[in-house]
């Protein structure tokens, strides 16, 4: 009987997430802001990204926007980044560069480069993307900037990945889709908790009012999500996910590179506000209990009509909602695989989380 109770309670929690939170992005109608196009500064940090800069920087520099600057921070690059930037400096007057030289006595992460780029920026509105990202249209800046009002100081955008024929690419795109679905929906529910540096914007004054990354500067990651977690609230945060506002980048090809990236991102979760940690933890826990109890109840064939009907309800919601979100975020060929990934992601994220915890404990031990 305990498994029936577990199944029922976990199903209720899942339905609350779908019908109370996840549904918000499906019914969202963006406000029509006819803002004056104010000047903006685009900040890109690059370390050994010469090939990506040569490939993607022109699309950032060719935006259909009246007044903007692009600042590329060359962070200790040892490849031919300087040459690539030099080539584009001659062609685009609104491109500016600054460099950070390597200091063997002082190791630093991306947050220093971001801070240098922000200090070099002339304008109040800051838009962030990465060196390996490409805006999908020349309306990217227009779509992002139009969300800034007197009340709005943060705009969360969507940074997806190019579609390639591989299982890993499929999973990375699914994972990215689900994360975006989650942070967009939470923002619409008045509880924003993160954004992604591939497509993010906020006011320069907000950055300095928060003392930059001071509270988490010691962490390698978190220049995007931890900053948003600290500063975002229901009044100052807007979202933008129209197709023209997206950016795309290449997904990590070797599995070990993606695992390394994912593990680094997971290290920031524990620094979120308590209510965000609770909400982000209760959903996968309820999903695990839901699937586990369903498998057990199905195996002993208890209350089959009720159990299968309840399972079918959640399955139908998952299918319909996922398809609509895919359409909103212009993601294709993920619907069928998402049914499998919904279960698989529980295990891969749990393994990576435990792995991170074990590594942290080993580092704290005396040798």
Give a short overview.
This protein has 367 residues and is an alpha/beta fold.
Name a few traits of the molecule:
13% strand, Spore Coat Polysaccharide Biosynthesis Protein SpsA, Chain A, 3-stranded mixed β-sheet, globular, 7-stranded mixed β-sheet, alpha/beta, 10 strands
Task: Describe the protein in words.
With 367 residues, this protein is α/β, with parallel strands linked by helices. The protein folds into two domains: 2-24 and 275-364, no CATH class; 30-253, Spore Coat Polysaccharide Biosynthesis Protein SpsA, Chain A, CATH 3.90.550.10. 53% of the residues lie in helices and 13% in strands. It is built from 13 helices and ten strands. The protein has helices at 2-22, 24-27, 50-61, 81-91, 110-120, 140-145, 167-188, 204-209, 225-231, 255-266, 274-300, 304-328, 335-364; strands at 40-46, 68-75, 95-100, 125-130, 133-135, 154-156, 159-161, 200-203, 237-239, 247-249. The protein has a seven-stranded mixed sheet with strand order 3-2-1-4-8-6-9, sandwiched between helices. It has a three-stranded mixed sheet with strand order 5-10-7. The termini are far apart.
Put simply, the count of helices is 13
Backbone structural class: alpha/beta
CATH topology description of the largest domain: Spore Coat Polysaccharide Biosynthesis Protein SpsA, Chain A
Q: List the domain count as a whole number.
A: 2
Main sheet summary: 7 strands, mixed
Q: Please provide the count of β strands.
A: 10
Strand order, main sheet: write it out. Answer: 3-2-1-4-8-6-9
The general outline is globular
CATH architectural label of the largest domain: Alpha-Beta Complex
- Our estimate of the beta-strand percent is 5-15%
Highest CATH level, the class of the largest domain: Alpha Beta
